[in-house]
Protein 1
Amino acid sequence: MNRIEGKTVLITGASSGIGRACARVFASYGARLVLVARREDRLAELVSKLENEHGGQAKYFCLDVSKREEVQSWAEKLQQKTIEPDVLVNNAGLASGLSRLQEGDFSDWDRMIDTNIKGLLYVSRAILPGMVKRNTGHIVNIGSIAGHIVYPAGNVYCATKFAVRALNDGMNIDLYGTDIKVSSIDPGAVQTEFSRVRFKGDEKRAAKTYEGFKPLQPEDVADAVFYVVNTPKHVNIQDLIIMPTAQRNPYLLKRRGE
Ligand code: NDP
Ligand code: 8X3
């Protein structure tokens, strides 16, 4: 059953990876899309592709979710255009660096905290009041297995994903008594630009992350997001962990030959 058709779905971090795959799956089910990221060329290309493939309506906004004032004025623009999201996928996020805490880089810490925690908060704070007013909506937070188990040198990235899990619980509690659903989708290793960003463009090191096993593809996660959003009104999947079969947790990853 398609409960998505005609719904307005807002996706942050839609220019790449999981967000882009979510845009494609929701477009294929007839959603109206509002896509957000910083790279305009990527968004423009995606929107024209989606229009060609599905003829649906997609809009994009260049936005840095970590900039509070930018998010506030973007939210006003949405209101002026009477864009009222039924679904918000809080996906924009990143890891920056992989160092032991005692060697950590302050600007890496700021980027991760400002994007993964504050960005998610700013966008949610902008969109939730409208959902509450309409007593309908669904927030999907993209967490991580890193929000359940800390791994060596993962310190701050893991802390941001533990925070996403706490905020997912907090939203569920604060929205008690409303019809608004809140879900967290928590993947293990997904083959995206994530590692390229974490290792600051070091392609060789990034590629090693996915060597010797079959990682999740962004489409696998997008299918899970779609499933969660497409559930009937009385069903709220609050947390869903999705892993490659080869990976049971951050420590148990079976690579060929190991
Ligand atoms: P990608 O690097 O492929 O995509 C990240 C997306 O986030 C891009 O579209 C990027 O767009 C956007 N983004 C980053 N910073 C900002 C910002 N300040 N403002 C707006 N958009 C931003 O990685 P993934 O698809 O893997 O990551 C998506 C989410 O999934 C993240 O939250 C990540 O933590 C999570 N995740 C990833 C896993 C993995 O193994 N890949 C596993 C578990 C969770 P742009 O640069 O154009 O702004
Ligand atoms: C991203 C995947 O490997 O850092 O959340 O847990 S990992």
Note: The chain has a mean pLDDT of 98.
Protein 2
Amino acid sequence: MTAADALARHLKTLDGQSYRAYQSLRGEYSFPGFQLHVDHVQGDPFAALSQVRVWVDGAIAQFPADLLTTATRRMAVADFVVRQFHHQAQQWRRSQGSGKSGLIEIARPSQAVLVRSACTVSAAGIELRVAVGLPAFGRRIAGHQAAELLCQQLPMLVERSAEYKNLAAAALRHQVEVVEDAEAMRSQLRERGLVAFVADGSVLPRRSGVDDRPLQEDAAVRFESPESLRVGLTCPNRGSVTGMGIPQGITVIVGGGYHGKSTLLRAIERGVYPHIPGDGREAVVTDPAAVKVRAEDGRSVVGVDISPFINHLPQGKSTRHFSTPNASGSTSQAANIMEALEAGARVLLVDEDTSATNFMIRDRRMQALIAKTREPITPFIDKVRQLYEEHGVSTILVMGGSGDYFDVADTVIALDSYRPEAVTEQAKAVAQRYNTERLAEGGDRFDLLTPRRILPQGIDPSRGRKAVNLKVRSTDEIRFGEEEIDLSAVEQIVEPGQIRAIARALVYLQTHYLDGQRSLPEVLDAVMDDLAQAGLDCLDDRLSGNLVQFRPLELAAALNRLRTLQVAPV
Ligand code: ADP
Ligand code: MG
């Protein structure tokens, strides 16, 4: 292994040479506080950044052993280190020279605490994966700047983010405790008969549609549970936490426009992940298999059984193996639900704002004017109870526009100026007094989707002479081979790294598990098992610093949106 000062000398001798000479950097270097691995060297100053790995031995990092005893704690510590590194790197950002010269980057973390390939922590030590822009002027190596970047700036950032003595110890411990408490609360939901929990005092509104940080303290009304829905969960660190428990079954959130309904539902959507202290949603937890489903017209649907919701399409098109390159609002929402169920969803989250009206309701008058024989759609209102009673799948629904849902609700929550009230009894009384006279439609059973096998020929990541062509744009699009997968309607993806990992996982499942025999859930299980065993690195043959843990539900969502997908019945 080359010593750090030898690296510095070597970089200076490269000064003025052509950029290609940087390729000689690949290798391992021993620094006073860590080891540096240069894994990938960019081809020119404008290309994707060079990738380096830093290993800080446990004896130097010196994290207290009790912060590293469980996977949850290690995740929380790694997340803290990533944030620290990111913050420091932002402050020291100085780009000199051409292209991406002088950049040091670690992927920007969201408000969620997630497992990321950018940093792993154990008692043995800490590994950081960092992208750097090797400096140049034009296409000539800037050797002195490179020496400063790798031998001064990088060590300083590593020291400040990965050595315990330089971290805010109380803040780190607090983060570990908050994350551990959230995981503990989430794991209590099922046994307590709950699908979600929103702690008293939570701050749900966000700063803006593009800024996921909490709305400023004085502007936000803190959450306060209605008395009748208040429950206490026990946390290992904070002790008992009280808040609103949303029971299994059908919950309808009502209230006037602008009174905070969608904000509450969005917080519940994100409750599948733990959040950093100060986020406001640290103690909002949701069943890990909760899925936001919405209308998504224009998406492609391949071989999905949407017959519980859609039947007798014009021209006799089958809905048991329904395919279209261009779904309507209602068929896309039906497909989204059936696919989510296939992928293991236990809770559906639905907002009227993003739903197709004709999918949600069909009132008595419309039933009288348009006979059922002329309406392919069975609205969700006629299926939501069957889903729960036959399959144990709960629904939380925001619905300010139709009281018809009072008939099928177990729990009704009204928001009034952001304050929740339990109004189930009042809603039931209203339902008795004003009978909707609706006729139930769509039969009295809910048949789950006929299982689908995934055919290997439908998944092709190649493009031209490139065997694997993947590109990812923010959190809503994958370029996969020649195709684009639009994930903008998959709302529980919070970091671009999740999409990157999902894109890799598509390639991975294609090479490992597509024998044409396995059903979609079997393929998902196989991939998630491998991930649990071997970590995110199993997805890529190159060690990548920007993969982030995802749920099988979002992997399924990507697969289902691939326009070339081919399936066959099992
Ligand atoms: P609805 O879905 O009922 O129409 P939204 O959830 O979209 O309402 O909220 C309307 C506005 O109120 C949004 O700008 C949101 O950020 C803000 N808001 C929501 N909840 C709160 C709260 N607890 N405190 C302050 N502002 C809030
Ligand atoms: Mg709304």
Note: The first helix runs from residue 4 to 14.
